[in-house]
Amino acid sequence: GAVVSQHPSRVICKSGTSVKIECRSLDFQATTMFWYRQFPKQSLMLMATSNEGSKATYEQGVEKDKFLINHASLTLSTLTVTSAHPEDSSFYICSARRQTGIESYEQYFGPGTRLTVT
Amino acid sequence: ILNVEQSPQSLHVQEGDSTNFTCSFPSSNFYALHWYRWETAKSPEALFVMTLNGDEKKKGRISATLNTKEGYSYLYIKGSQPEDSATYLCAFSNTNAGKSTFGDGTTLTVKP
User: Fold this and answer.
1) Contacts of residue B103 in chain A, CB cutoff 8 Å?
2) CA angle (B103, A24, A72) in 5-degree steps
3) Which residue in B99, B101, B104, B107 has the most chain A C-beta atoms within 10 A of its own C-beta, making it the best mutation to test that interface?
4) How far is B41 from chain A (nearest CA, A)?
5) Per-residue confidence of chain A (118 residues) as pLDDT tens digits?
């Protein structure tokens, strides 16, 4: 199947610093990627939809200035957590949408990034 | 807010047992229902994409059924093996935009 990589897998940073997480589709082009966040013992919550060459679409309640998303190429989307605080500590995971037909698609996930803000 | 529920939350079975779990979703504006398998420290892996009422899909010992009119899907595992231990997620879409609402998952543990 298709492969999506995510880097870094783990990151520990100090409060007030910014952290960038990369999501790459390795063997297909993805015009659309998604960023999710998982809180402990909860499911994946969609944060934003990243569209290549245009602005990301954020879900209600997600601060766009806090979570900057850039999708500069068909294989790379980045999520930057700006001025991180301990409450931003979480598991962040991306997925890339691969079109398989006119009306069909599959979604491939990266392995996730564990962010800890101290 | 779309409500997608999975039950049970966790399940412990013996090797060789067959098991099943449920995903409930809104019965209106259905587009697709996805099942994923998520092993610890790995990426969620797509199992099935189901789009039509009455769909039945099978992959080895794992199969799934779909009832869009009543808003539920069942995932079955026949003859569970320890390597089936994982969290099984379902995700509901009401459009073709690719956005999905995930359930909280069912965590399956298969004891040898």
Assistant:
1) 43
2) 110
3) B99
4) 7
5) 679 999 999 999 999 999 999 999 999 999 899 999 998 777 899 999 998 888 899 999 999 999 999 998 999 999 999 999 999 999 999 999 887 777 677 889 999 999 999 9
